[in-house]
Design brief:
CATH superfamily of the largest domain: Impact, N-terminal domain
Protein name: YigZ family protein
Largest sheet: 5 strands, antiparallel
GO biological process, one term: regulation of translational initiation
Radius of gyration: 23 Å
CATH topology of the largest domain: Ribosomal Protein S5, domain 2
Pfam families: Impact_N
Family: Belongs to the IMPACT family.
InterPro entries: Impact, Impact_N, Impact_N_sf, Ribosomal_Su5_D2-typ_SF
Number of helices: 5
Distance between the termini: 29 Å
CATH architecture of the largest domain: 2-Layer Sandwich
Length: 204
């Protein structure tokens, strides 16, 4: 059974792959993304790289629990490019990813069926060329306490082998931790029950 707090993604851009059909060329790419700004940047870079290409069709999915996605045909017939690409993102069950297929028209029309096949294959090639990894959905907490309570806090962190992402250790101390979602509630309780220690969830 798939664990509910695990998701699949890629950590670095795929190698470029190429699919050809009746002299049309399709260059395929996959990128890790965490917001729409990054999607725009990758598209701009590809447009500089492929100045003479006719279509930059893509799909992306961002998020682990609140999912946002978009599929773009970029001038190809409706649903002949973006959705076939997005279909492959769903089929590989990956998120926080952008897949782009760049087309150079070769002079022969492929028809809607041919286009669907080409964009689907291009997306598949990009995903096959990517290293897909599993990651956990984490909850981030800020723990605030006076310096005198440092030992109590650090003891819990050590006992539970928690991952500290940042810390400010002065008179007023703050420690930031990242915890797997399924363990988040028990970790929260562990700190919440310590006198003079405050724990709050933060959105990083």
């Amino acid at each position: 059974m798939e664990e509910s707090d695990v998701y699949k993604t890629i950590v670095k851009a795929s190698e470029e792959t190429l699919f050809k059909d009746r002299s049309s060329k399709f260059f395929n790419y996959a990128f890790p993304v965490s917001n729409e700004e990054e999607v725009k940047l990758h598209l701009e870079e590809l447009k500089l790289q492929h100045k003479n290409a006719g279509h930059f069709c893509y799909a992306y999915q961002i998020g682990t629990e609140d999912i946002s996605y978009r599929a773009n045909d970029d001038g190809e017939p409706n649903n002949s490019a973006g959705m076939p690409i997005y279909g492959q993102i769903q089929s590989y069950e990956v998120t926080n990813i952008l897949v782009v297929v760049v087309r150079y028209f070769g002079g022969t029309k492929l028809g809607v069926g041919g286009l669907i096949n080409a964009y689907k294959t291009g997306a598949q090639m990009a995903l096959d060329a990517s290293k897909i990894v599993k990651k956990t959905i984490n909850v981030d907490y800020e723990i605030a306490f006076d310096y005198k309570n440092m030992n109590k806090v650090m003891r819990v962190i050590k006992e539970r082998n928690l991952n500290i992402t940042n810390q400010v250790l002065e008179l007023d101390c703050k420690v930031y931790i990242s915890v797997r979602k399924k363990e988040a509630e028990t970790v929260f309780e562990a700190f919440n029950s310590i006198y003079e220690v405050e724990i709050n969830q933060v959105d990083l």
